C-alpha cells in the first residue's frame, strides 16, 4: 500500500470513526468519494509505500478517546490543508472537504494543546531560573496529579460496583 493510499485509507478510518458517533456522515458515499480522490491523486503509484504510513502509526499510541480526538483533530486539519489546494469544483472533493470541515468543528482545538507540549519540550531545564520556577510550582503540579489519579480511581471503583460479574 502506497503512502498516499495509506493517507487516504486513514482519511477513510477517520470518517468511519466519526460516522459511528455523528450519524450525519453517509459512509457509503464517502467511500465512493475517497475512491475517486485516490484516482485523482494516482495513489496506487509505487512510491506511496516508501517510508510506511504517515498517520495510522501515530494513532496507535493514542488510546484514550479524548487523546484520540486531539490527534485526529490535527490529522483532519492536515487533510483540510491538503484538499485546500485541490479542485473543489469536483463534487467528490467538495463533499469530502465539507465533511472534514464539519468534523473539525466538532473536535477540540488540538493545535493549542500541541503548542503547549512543544513549549514544554523547549524548556531549558538546565537554566537556573527555569529550575527555580519549576520548584516553585512542584507542589501545585503534584496536587493536580493526585486529583487526576483520585478521579480515575473513583471512576474505576464505580464501574466495578456496577459490574455483577
From TrEMBL:
One example of a Gene Ontology biological process annotation: defense response to virus
Record SUPFAM superfamilies: 4-helical cytokines
InterPro entries: 4_helix_cytokine-like_core, Interferon_gamma
Compartments it resides in: Secreted
Any one of the GO CC terms: extracellular space
Sequence intervals crossing the membrane: 6-28
GO molecular function, one term: type II interferon receptor binding
Coiled-coil intervals, chain numbering: 111-162
Record keywords: Antiviral defense, Coiled coil, Cytokine, Glycoprotein, Growth regulation, Membrane, Secreted, Signal, Transmembrane, Transmembrane helix
Keyword Aminoacyl-tRNA synthetase: no
PANTHER family: INTERFERON GAMMA (PTHR11419)
Summary of subunit composition and partner proteins: Homodimer.
Role of this protein: Produced by lymphocytes activated by specific antigens or mitogens. IFN-gamma, in addition to having antiviral activity, has important immunoregulatory functions. It is a potent activator of macrophages, it has antiproliferative effects on transformed cells and it can potentiate the antiviral and antitumor effects of the type I interferons.
Family recorded in the similarity comment: Belongs to the type II (or gamma) interferon family.
Name of the protein described by the UniProt record: Interferon gamma
Organism expressing this protein natively: Puffinus puffinus (Manx shearwater)
Amino acid at each position: 500500500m502506497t503512502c498516499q493510499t495509506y493517507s487516504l485509507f486513514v482519511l477513510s478510518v477517520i470518517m468511519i470513526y466519526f460516522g459511528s458517533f455523528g450519524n450525519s456522515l453517509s459512509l457509503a458515499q464517502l467511500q465512493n468519494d475517497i475512491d475517486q480522490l485516490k484516482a485523482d491523486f494516482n495513489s496506487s503509484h509505487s512510491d506511496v509505500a516508501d517510508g510506511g504510513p504517515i498517520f495510522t502509526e501515530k494513532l496507535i499510541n493514542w488510546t484514550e478517546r479524548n487523546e484520540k480526538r486531539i490527534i485526529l483533530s490535527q490529522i483532519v486539519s492536515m487533510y483540510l490543508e491538503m484538499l485546500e489546494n485541490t479542485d473543489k469544483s469536483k463534487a467528490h472533493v467538495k463533499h469530502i472537504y465539507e465533511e472534514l470541515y464539519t468534523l473539525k468543528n466538532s473536535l477540540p482545538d488540538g493545535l493549542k494543546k500541541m503548542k503547549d507540549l512543544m513549549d514544554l519540550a523547549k524548556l531549558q531545564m538546565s537554566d537556573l531560573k527555569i529550575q527555580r520556577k519549576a520548584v516553585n510550582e512542584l507542589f501545585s503540579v503534584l496536587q493536580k496529579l493526585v486529583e487526576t489519579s483520585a478521579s480515575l480511581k473513583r471512576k474505576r471503583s464505580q464501574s466495578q460496583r456496577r459490574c455483577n460479574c
